Amino acid sequence: xxxxxxxxxxxxxxxxxxxxxxxxxxxxxxxxxxxxxxxxxxxxxxxxxxxxxxxxxxxxxxxxxxxxxxxxxxxxxxxxxxxxxxxxxxxxxxxxxxxxxxxxxxxxxxxxxxxxxxxxxxxxxxxxxxxxxxxxxxxxxxxxxxxxxxxxxxxxxxxxxxxxxxxxxxxxxxxxxxxxxxxxxxxxxxxxxxxxxxxxxxxxxxxxxxxxxxxxxxxxxxxxxxxxxxxxxxxxxxxxxxxxxxxxxxxxxxxxxxxxxxxxxxxxxxxxxxxxxxxxxxxxxxxx
Amino acid sequence: xxxxxxxxxxxxxxxxxxxxxxxxxxxxxxxxxxxxxxxxxxxxxxxxxxxxxxxxxxxxxxxxxxxxxxxxxxxxxxxxxxxxxxxxxxxxxxxxxxxxxxxxxxxxxxxxxxxxxxxxxxxxxxxxxxxxxxxxxxxxxxxxxxxxxxxxxxxxxxxxxxxxxxxxxxxxxxxxxxxxxxxxxxxxxxxxxxxxxxxxxxxxxxxxxxxxxxxxxxxxxxxxxxxxxxxxxxxxxxxxxxxxxxxxxxxxxxxxxxxxxxxxxxxxxxxxxxxxxxxxxxxxxxxxxx
Lengths: 288, 290
What we know:
heterodimer, A: alpha/beta, 2 domains, 11 helices, B: Rossmann fold, 9 strands, elongated
């Protein structure tokens, strides 16, 4: 049985991505969870990790040697991100908005620019109480680019294990970076017009990236689920699971308690969802 | 004119619902939806689109196959792993349009092409003009699109001499959220009493403090966990962020959302409606003080 790498994502935040990632991880043996929602890594509040390892993620930003700089403006004109500006014959650097492309250093005709390391974020590891091998990425406050942190986090994927990635919500680069080389994507949504609108965007993204995917409806309610079900039927997307709208679940969530701990029968449900995904993918490979 | 951005850090705390209900109470204002990744305000306010425009700011390196000699310099200089090591094709999702390969290519075979980032709409709601946008999927310049939406909304408010601009901000703490709070007078946090909601509030509050913008806060669904709500209240006090109200957890809110209705409009005697009215009064007081 080959190892499976799946990413949990959603078009909109707050639909239950972390709920699904954490509860599913706790329902499976030999599992690794990567929290790639690096702007707001929240799985930690459910897993109570004692971090045993930390790695800082650096990126390069330019430093100008004003003694050598001739104020020729070539770097300022080159920078696509306006991270360099000219002020009274001096080049100013705005490291927060620099994308670390290294271009200014390469094009400076007098070698007045050197690149220095700047801490962008951190990766943290823990073996949690629940036997989950857990890594999280964390973007430093004030930094804008999540992607390098997510790239570094994904290198921690242990393919001897099944891997679950909790992605940042949305459909921009950080979400794509998290999901792009996954075997499968689980889209988490809720039966409201907001949930539907954002699910449409997320499934469009998955189609474009050509990643097989299915839907989990969180906060499901019998008389409202049609909002999501109709769309999924029309698009031929599998509904993998429904997690009911219960005040008790909301309360457990707020206290950072994964609901499978209080309701262990749910572990079987997550396990069968996972096995179905694996089965489906194997079948597909076989038929190809 | 006063500009207020509503943000939350974490998604799903009720930011958009609060914005739409406040819009009803304010009646005459300009609205902007800066949550361009997952715009939802239009679902509650049903704006009529007057005109739209394409916003271009993403760039992508394009290769001229005729000139390319497969020397591999582009692969060597690209920091974003956007160039394939075998055939030197450019991955459009990974390319950040920095132009380093363009500058370094010895054959002049590469150029930067401007791409669509999204579409911006100038619309009208029953409470006034609204500026919103759709981000193209996979786009990487949502921050610039957010700035554009915000600036257009400011222009509209100035032209039409409106007193209030209410901005539905972006979630997270990164580039889009920073763009959505730039130059505003006041930030309103909508948070929820969960460990993750509280932690995200603290992270985004640091971003706001970094920019020195006065902030107010609302605790939504406060009775889901009154213990954490009290902790949040303590934190707000310490940080000198005025708590302008708490909103009860109620399925009525979700029900009105499903019907694309505003609870303050449909059920004026509802407990939640009263709570939101109280919040609006406090916001007004705060605005008039400044």
